[in-house]
Amino acid sequence: MGTVVQLKNQINDSYFQLKDSVEDKLILTEEKIKSKLASDVGLVQKMTEYHIQTGGKRLRALLTLGSAKLCGYSKGSRDINLAACVELIHSATLMHDDVIDEGTVRRGKDTLNKVWNNHSSVLIGDYLLSRCFEMMVEDGNLEVLKLLSSTSSKIAQGEVLQLQHKGEVDMLEETYLKIISAKTAELFAAATKVGAILSEVEFKEKDALEFYGRNLGLTFQIADDTLDYNSDLKLFGKKIGQDFFEGKITLPIILLFQRIDIDEKKLLTEFFKKDLREKNDFNKIIVLIKKYDIINECYQKAQHYINLASNSLTVFKESKEKSILKNLTSFSLARNF
Question: From the centroid of its chain, how far is CA 251?
Fold first, then answer.
């Protein structure tokens, strides 16, 4: 057990190394977010303050700041402003997600829609997006504006695609990858590419960072979906089963459906047809997940995207920033928070 924990700690170090390398800028990004969300409308102020207090990894903002640093951006505060933009897009999508999924807990705290209501949460999500677009316009770079507005559109389409296939246990793996590409990987790709755009580097570097971010995002989401069914990792603080109880079809279920026999297929299908799934249903799924070694298969799939992300950074010369971003690919797969 000690060896496993030690390995986990080493992997998680890459996240903290990235955070430490841009700490001053991250503090300013937090201040920018707070100032931009200030409002004279009492309920808006209360809800945005509550949201800020819930925290989060700020991974997408860190990727923007880290990518800009990798590409040599040092003067000015555009990286801070756009890191804040990326985080606001992410936060808005989480608020909308919680309404759609009827979520009640996020980051260990009650969601906005539970504390207040769905209507308010949707409107606050819209408020965050509108503030984000104000900041993009203020930045004045047409390429950035086009990238981030397009990304917001793709995220929304990913949400609709996921709703369209809700409860579909025989979903194609290709469809799943389209969903997570739109919902998660697009914003990762935008976060890293924005850092390159600010630095006015060559197309080669921009494309490399965009490719890095996209594959990092795919790894991140596959790992997140896999953790939801990995009861062996309970000691690392991940509450399992949320996707199952919400009726979401993710990679573990897709791969499981491909492996199981006819009777087990019927059982799995019935579980996802139900309006409410019970703890006993989930326990039966976990037994099947272990029987067919699905967790290991999911991680093997994710390793492919880790390799793609890591190899894309070869266009950059060796540096501390490059090393951190390269190591971050392993963090996305094996993180414990």
Answer: 15
Q: What is the pLDDT of residues 146-193, one digit of tens each?
A: 999 999 999 999 999 998 998 899 999 999 999 999 999 999 999 999
Q: For position 9, what pLDDT does the model report?
A: 47
Give the H or E element holding residue 110: strand 109-110
The domains of the chain, with CATH numbers, are 22-334 (1.10.600.10)
**Alpha-carbon separation of residue 209 from 21, 151, 212, 220, 230 (angstroms):** 18, 15, 5, 16, 31
Q: Which burial class, exposed, middle or buried, applies to 267 when counting CB atoms under 10 A from its CB (0-12, 13-18, 19+)?
A: middle
For the whole model, what pTM was predicted? 0.89
Helix (H) or strand (E) holding 109: strand 109-110
Q: d(Cα 283, Cα 100) in Å, to the nearest integer?
A: 25
Each residue of 114-146: pLDDT tens digit? 778 778 888 888 888 899 999 999 888 999 999
Residue type, 126: D
Instruction: Measure the CA–CA gap between 65 and 296, rounded to whole angstroms.
Output: 33
Between CA 272 and CA 256 the distance in angstroms is 13
The single-letter DSSP state of residue 317 is P
Q: What's the rounded Cα separation, in Å, for the pair 22 and 322?
A: 13
Helix ranges restricted to H, the chain: 2-21, 23-37, 42-53, 59-70, 78-101, 112-115, 118-139, 142-164, 173-180, 186-198, 203-227, 242-246, 251-259, 262-273, 279-291, 294-312, 320-334
**Of 248, 252, 228, 247, the residue nearest 239 (C-alpha):** 228
pLDDT tier at 67, thresholds 50, 70, 90: very high
